[in-house]
Structures are given as structure tokens and as C-alpha cells.
Amino acid sequence: MKLLVGLGNPGAEFDNTPHNVGFAVIDKIAEEYGVEIKKKRKNGLMAIVEVGDNEVILLKPQTFMNSSGDCVFAIAKKYNIKPSDICVVLDDVDLTAGLVRARPLGSAGTHNGLRSVTARLGTTDFNRIRIGVDSMSRGSDLAEYVLRKMDPRTQQTVSVGIDKAVEYALKFMKDGLPADTK
Q1: Does domain 2-174 have CATH number 3.10.180.10?
Q2: For the whole model, what pTM was predicted?
Q3: In this predicted model, what pLDDT tens digit does every residue of 19-38 receive, in sequence order?
Q4: Distance (Å, rounded) from C-alpha 58 to C-alpha 47?
Q5: For site-directed labelling of 159, which of 2, 100, 166, 170 has its Cα 20 to 30 A away?
Q6: Which residues are catalytic?
Q7: How far apart are CA 155 and CA 162, in angstroms?
Q8: Local confidence band at 145 (pLDDT 50, 70, 90 cut-offs)
Q9: Which residues contact residue 166 at a Cβ distance below 8 angstroms, ignoring those fewer than 6 apart?
Q10: What is the model's pLDDT at position 52?
């Protein structure tokens, strides 16, 4: 069994914000597989899909970003999923909007959601797909930037990254991520 996690914040007020691109990826994959992310488990919404010989849990933690690790850890423990079979999809303000980086391991960087997952799992040895949402201007508040609605131009550019992230997520679900993308 594998676990594909999209990081984000629950609630319509966070739709179309940089912080919710992980949720957008999970929603697109669920649509592709014809499932709804609605089963409530361990402070998350999930669905299980079959991909070849694999069962994959699609998960949207409902704990808010900074506590995402609580939900990820609880689901991984409940279903006995090892870190190497987990992939976390998230926003990255250090990547240009629309760019995507997929890696089988790495640091949490400045992302509090990823820090939470790393802390709760007790390892950095899990897959991650980062979607560029652009850098904020100097002096801007990071929290304000990632929680505000994206303007139409940025949304369009980020949508390209969301589509690319879906491709990588589907690869993870079938065969695993490539060693590293840049």
C-alpha cells in the first residue's frame, strides 16, 4: 500500500491559494480515478484507489498545514505504510511558479507542513513533489503570501505545475518517483 498526501488547509477560503496546491493535485487524481475524497479517517479525508497491483490512499489532511504530520503519521501507522511508500505534494515559494521538483528524500526547508510531516514520521526518507508558487517580494509576510488567493496570471502558471505534479504523482503510484528531477 502507498500513501499520496496533498498538503493544504481545509475550508473554501483557502481554495486557490498557494498553500493548497497539494490538495489540487489530490483532487485531480481523484477525478481521474472517479473517486471522491470524502472518507474521514484520523483527521483527514481520503479515498483508496487501485493502481495495477498497488492500493494507494489519496489523503488530504484536515489538521491545517502546520499540523499535517499528525494526520500523515496516524494514517501511515493505521495502514502500516513505510516512509518510502509515502509521497507528499506541497507548495514551494523557493521555486518559480509552475516548476516542479520531485525527490525521493530531502529536507523540509522552510515549509512548516513538511516540517510537521518530517517530525512526526521521524525521518526525511519519504518522497516529495514540490510545486513552485513563486517567490514573494522582499519584506512580505510569508504566511500572508501563501494564504491569499492567487491572481489569475499566477493561477494559470501554477496550474501548469499542478498538471506536471499530477504526472509525477501518477508515476509514484505506479512505479515510484524518478531519482530526482530539477
Answers
A1: no
A2: 0.92
A3: 899 999 999 999 999 999 99
A4: 5
A5: 2
A6: 19
A7: 10
A8: low
A9: 25, 28, 29, 32
A10: 87
Kindly report the three-state secondary structure assignment for every residue of the chain: CEEEEECCCCCHHHCCCHHHHHHHHHHHHHHHHCCCCCEEECCEEEEEEEECCEEEEEEEECCCHHHHHHHHHHHHHHCCCCHHHEEEEEEECCCCCCCEEEECCCCCCCCHHHHHHHHHHCCCCCEEEEEECCCCCCCCCHHHHHHCCCCHHHHHHHHHHHHHHHHHHHHHHHCCCCCCCC
Instruction: Give the residue carrying C-alpha cell 523557493.
Output: 94
Count CB-CB contacts under 10 A for residue 88: 27
Q: Which residues lie closer than 8 Å to 97 by C-beta, 6 or more apart?
A: 132, 133, 134, 154, 157, 158, 161
